[in-house]
Amino acid sequence: MAKTFTIGLAQMAPRLGDVEANLQRHLELVREARGLGIDLLCFPELSMTGYTLRDLVPHVAVRPSPEHPAWKPLLDASKEMSLLVGFVEEDARHRFYISQAFLDGGQTIHVHRKTYLPTYGLFEEGRYLCAGEGFQAFDTRFGRVGVAICEDAWHLSTPYLLWLDGADYLLFCSSSPAYGVGPDQEGATGNAATVQQFTKTYARLLTSFAFHTNRVGVEEGISFWGGSLGVAPSGPVLAQGPFFEEALVPMEVDPGLLRTARQRLPLLRDEKSLLVFHELSRIVSHGDVPRTTEDATTDEPG
Amino acid sequence: MDIEARLSLDVPLTRRLLVNTIRAELGRFGFKKAVLGLSGGLDSSLAAYLAAEALGPENVRAVLMPYSTSAPDSTRDAMDVIQRLGLSHATIEITGMVDAYFAYFPDIGQRRQGNVMARARMIILYDQSEEWGGLVIGTSNKTELLLGYGTLFGDMASAVNPLGDLYKTQVRQMARAVGVPEQIIAKPPSADLWPGQTDEGEMGLTYAEVDKVLFLLVDERRTRDEVAEMGFSPKFVSNVWRMVQKSQYKRLPPVIAKVSDRTVGWEFRMPRDWGT
Predict the structure, then answer these.
(1) Shortest Cα distance, chain A CAs vs residue B252, angstroms
(2) Which pairs with CB-CB distance under 8 Å and at least 24 residues apart come from B227-232?
(3) CB–CB contact B271 A221 (8 Å)
(4) Complex ipTM
(5) Domain residue spans of chain A
């Protein structure tokens, strides 16, 4: 039987554009997490930089390698616990990404680049950043993990793909701004309720663990709502962080729950991924689905 | 849900967001104190309650800036708020300042006078900001911002505006919930720039009506035709939209003539809270 472990969600408020200050805050939280016996410490999206960066993007970008002065201390810290860190990544050809790195045993195990960059409403990511090109699950000492960053997780296909790729642990990391204060919000804004709901729903429908680490604090008049959440495969909430306040939210994870959940609800066993593949191929390659109204009318006789 | 219900706020949540934002945005620039112009009206009273909750009443300086024709009950209501909250306060009359200027222009008219008074108050608030070591809290609500019912670089000037995303109707709902005295909530909104002036009289509309139309057009992204079909006069809807359009310049920084590769506001886009 796989051993239980402790995951911690670091619901922090990064300092905007100050990598050094945020690095120190990460190391403080690692020390705090040590006292709680945490094995895997998750930070929010862009935890090393803050969110509303705009033209600060190139000023705060990091290459996730041991040579980088901000990366080395994180790698060292990952010798005592695994870390999931949010940062702006610069690639060798000087493209900038919103990335989340999984560090363990002094190594960078995996980097996920945010693939869906929201560029609407108050979001302007597409203006400043390059989109990642996909989702890939990866193996860790806890099991197989899938990472998604904020908007990534709003696209249904993201957790689905990670699940098919073998992820039993979905790690969502966000800088989710608070908006929508209509009547009766139960402690957080309208969009928060949606994120909480889909995190729970994904856990249940994918019979997997789902964790959401969201930041707090205020930037440019925008508040971030926190409310970080861990959900077990059959649905129950493991722990939830407070809204709007900094917190380190620990919870014990029993991998045995995957086994019991998938006996009760064998959705993974019965999933027809080949069918999905065929149907998607047909749909995407045009097949008999009309792409525009004009296409549809050309099928009409006469 | 009908429109009144959709316009209503989750008060505890909104209060938390506004109070947090005041504290956080001042704090990140190293300030623990604030200054605001308190007229005795609804908006500035609510702003005073929120600032006092965020920073502690002893850290909020309310400045009364009456003119010789200001309504006496404005001062009375402002003093009531100050006493209830225990705010630091100062009274600085603008009469001497602005009358000296008005003397150059015997035909100046109410509108120009009103704008000069609003800008004189801005001068005082920003000087008090320096003297008191606190940032200026804004009191312009969303209805005023969208309709352009405010004086550019006058009452629209501030460092942090906690009310700018609340319609007047919502300001009233919040004010009631945080305990602003009922006589302030009940009196007709007025800039008090001349005797008998009321916002609704001057603009020729009611906040109750215009807030619904703005909410549908702006927040819910409805077309003007759709709003008219919901029972609002098409002429009124068009007028409201025109007011929003004509005042767009007031909601933006001044136009810069672009000549270089990297112009402030276009290619140079640093966050305001840079490095804080």
Answers:
(1) 16
(2) B230/B3
(3) no
(4) 0.91
(5) 5-267
